[in-house]
């Protein structure tokens, strides 16, 4: 199937006193409380830091979207870009066997084989796909999100989505090793720029392949 990306270059961006035993106990309790608070902060930082942004679930829910996570199923290569492996556990796919050559990152006017797009997700990219019955102006609204920072994006129509807009990513907590990671899929009735940007900021650049985000430039794979 022919690919016709419309690609633009990225825009430049710009100690307390000790006394009696009772006092000592109070000091122990205080230290324990501070330690627990610091541990809680560390957990929050870890959760936010993993995705590179805050949890997008609240913003997506407010926008009328659903957000699901799927256990990664495979990182095998296949030789048919039009194949739809039975092991794919979401639609559009967010993990699993994928075509050996990824889709070029960019903004497309025509559908792109899903097995090609999926390979780009393994590297750390994200997709924004939309059905032919999505609200008028959907492509332009997605273009504005793409132009904000086009690294790692595949934006394209997908006939089987109908009225739906789908955002997908594939992440791993141990990038660069052999684990299958986790797929993330949001499905939305319309574009909400804030919610979509939160999804991208949370998940892009954390693919199982471990490719640095700065290498996922438009026109590259």
Helix content: 25-40%
Number of separate domains: 1
Low-confidence runs: 7-50
Query: How many E-type strands?
Result: 8
Main pleated sheet: 6 strands, mixed
How do the strands of the widest beta sheet line up side by side? 1-8-7-5-6-4
Mean pLDDT, nearest integer? 84
Q: Give the H and E element order.
A: HHEEEEHEHEEEH
Counting DSSP H or I runs of 4 or more residues, the number of helices is 5
Cα Rg: 21 Å
What would you call the structural class?
alpha/beta
Determine the strand fraction and express it as a percent band: 15-25%
Distance between the termini: 17 Å
Shape: globular
Describe this structure in words.
This protein is of the alpha/beta class and 221 residues long. It has one domain. Helices cover 31% and strands 16% of the residues. The protein has five helices and eight strands. The strands form two sheets. Strands 1-8-7-5-6-4 form a six-stranded mixed sheet, with helices on both faces. Strands 2-3 form a two-stranded parallel sheet. It is globular. The model is unreliable at 7-50 (pLDDT under 50).
Question: What topology does this entry show?
Answer:
Elements: H1 21-51, H2 57-62, E1 66-71, E2 77-78, E3 98-99, E4 106-107, H3 114-123, E5 126-130, H4 138-148, E6 153-157, E7 165-171, E8 182-188, H5 193-203
Parallel strand pairs: 2-3, 4-6, 5-6
Antiparallel strand pairs: 1-8, 5-7, 7-8
TL;DR of this structure?
It is built from five helices and eight strands, in the order ααββββαβαβββα.
For this entry, give a set of tags:
alpha/beta; single chain; 8 strands; two-stranded parallel ribbon; 5 helices; 221 residues
């Amino acid at each position: 199937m022919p690919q016709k990306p419309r690609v633009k270059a990225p825009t430049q961006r710009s100690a307390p006193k000790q006394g009696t035993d009772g006092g000592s106990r109070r000091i122990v309790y205080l230290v324990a409380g501070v330690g627990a608070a610091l541990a809680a902060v560390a957990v929050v930082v870890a959760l936010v830091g993993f995705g590179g942004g805050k949890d997008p679930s609240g913003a997506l829910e407010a926008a009328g979207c659903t957000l699901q996570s799927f256990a990664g199923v495979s990182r095998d290569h296949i030789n048919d870009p039009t194949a739809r492996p039975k092991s794919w556990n979401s639609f559009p796919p967010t993990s699993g066997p994928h075509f050996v050559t990824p889709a070029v990152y960019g903004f497309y006017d025509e559908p792109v084989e899903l097995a090609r797009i999926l390979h780009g997700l393994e590297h750390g990219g994200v997709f924004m796909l939309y059905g032919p019955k999505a609200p008028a102006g959907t492509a332009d609204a997605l273009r504005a999100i793409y132009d904000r920072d086009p690294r790692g994006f595949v934006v394209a129509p997908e006939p089987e989505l109908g009225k739906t807009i789908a955002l997908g990513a594939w992440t791993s907590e141990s990038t660069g090793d052999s684990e299958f990671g986790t797929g993330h899929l949001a499905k939305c009735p319309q574009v909400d720029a804030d919610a979509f940007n939160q999804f991208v900021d949370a998940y892009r650049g954390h693919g199982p392949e471990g490719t640095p985000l700065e290498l996922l430039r438009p026109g590259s794979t």
